[in-house]
Amino acid sequence: MSTTSQGFHLARFGDGRVLVEPQHGINPAADKSGLAEILAALREARAKTLFYDLSSITVIDAVYYRFLNQLANGCHALGVRMICINMQPTAACALAGEMREPPRFETAVGLEDV
Amino acid sequence: MPEEQRITEKLKALFDHQVGDISPALEQPARQYFGGVHGLLDEHELSDLSLEVQHLITGVLGSENPFDRESPEFTALESFFVNLSRKILTRGGDVEDIVRYTQSLQNTLIQALQHESSVEFTKSRSVLMFFSNHFIELILTVFRTYLNQKDETIRLQESEIRETATPITEIWDGVLTLPIIGSLDSNRTMLVMDSLLSYIAREHSKVVVMDLTGVSNIDSQVSHHLIQMVRAIQLMGAQAILTGIRPEIARALTTLNIDLGDICTRGSLSDGLKEAFSLLGVQVIAAQGSQQGAPAH
């Protein structure tokens, strides 16, 4: 499976693993249907783990962070493990200073580190 | 724009005067403060310096508006003092000597011009005021150069201290150690965090052991920075271990209501490394035949 929808590229690989790559310049939080589409795709793929690639996201603001947590909650409801990978140092630095609650998702340096 | 003086007869005589070779006289103050035992300028430089001063002052006196301290001629004279100050300070000279030289040059210059023209410039209030205004500006230029040089030195030293005070070392494949010494302010936190997170992203490091043995006191701001650094490391996907927290720091954290409950802590750097190895599934065992625990010789 490899599809592009609502500014996201989804690719299935391995056993129940799905990689989501938000495309450059897209603000997923602005369009709620993006969240629903990802969850639907996860269900369809019978995914066990979602890898959300943040390599193209240089700033994660409060709105984007809320979106990631909402997605993580959705994944949890589906029994899918969500792991954010490739978070940029600038994004981590800014987010660490802003966030008021721990993330609902797991993190890993890269896909190969999981 | 400074208030302009009325042009008196003496001033007119000064501006109309064709300056001859007064460089030997102008060399005296330079020799007194920079030459001989001071060893700041050699004979050649003393001679060149005086010729250049003469040339520049002649330029100011003969300029369209000698009062104008923004004229190209005066700006050139200022630049000369900037360069001279830098040279003297770099060679170990003192700012006081440069200021005294500048004052002495002012007096010598007026006397030399008087001697050359036979006009009593030293008794003219307007001439003295004209030179005084110009030389005060030159002394300010000397001080500005001195302060700029000091600022630059301090900036370089601070940069060096920052770099050497926060060495990030990859002590094992995927394990970084970061000893923190002194206090953490916002600037230093950003600097350390920037290099640490870039290192993690580049090398795919798994664990960071932050050793606080060198931190002697902590306040709410420092503890906030510390927690921010741990959170950023975790967001990058690595794990953070805090080690070496002194009892007084632990007590201060309690007083400040800082909860480190969800942060991995260990008593010593050694214990932190053991935890890091454990997280990576690495086991360190003594090589066959080695005498573990044998006294050092």
Give a nutshell description of this structure:
The complex is a heterodimer of chains A (114) and B (297). In chain A, 34% of the residues lie in helices and 25% in strands. Chain A is an alpha/beta fold.
Describe, in plain words, how this protein is organized in 3D:
The complex is a heterodimer of chains A (114) and B (297). Chain A is α/β, with parallel strands linked by helices and 114 residues long. Chain A has one domain: Transcription Regulator spoIIAA, CATH 3.30.750. Chain A is 34% helix and 25% strand. In chain A, helix 1 packs parallel to helix 2. With 297 residues, chain B is an alpha/beta fold. Chain B folds into 2 domains: 159 residues, Orthogonal Bundle (Globin-like), CATH 1.10.490; 131 residues, STAS domain (Transcription Regulator spoIIAA, 2-Layer Sandwich), CATH 3.30.750.24. Chain B is 60% helix and 9% strand. Chain B is elongated, with a radius of gyration of 33 Å. The model of chain B has no long low-confidence stretch (mean pLDDT 87).
The CATH topology label of chain A is Transcription Regulator spoIIAA
CATH class of the largest domain in chain B, named: Mainly Alpha
Any guess at the CATH architecture of the largest domain in chain B? Orthogonal Bundle
The multimeric state of the shown protein is: heterodimer
User: Which consecutive residue ranges of chain B, at least 5 long each, have pLDDT under 50?
Assistant: none
Give the CATH level 1 class of chain A: Alpha Beta
What is the total domain count of chain A? 1
What is the percent of helical residues of chain B? 55-70%
How does the major sheet of chain B shape up?
Answer: 5 strands, mixed
The number of helical runs of chain B is: 10
Which descriptors would you attach to this protein?
heterodimer, A: 114 residues, alpha/beta, Transcription Regulator spoIIAA, six-stranded mixed β-sheet, 6 strands, 25% strand, B: 297 residues, Globin-like, five-stranded mixed β-sheet, 10 helices, 5 strands
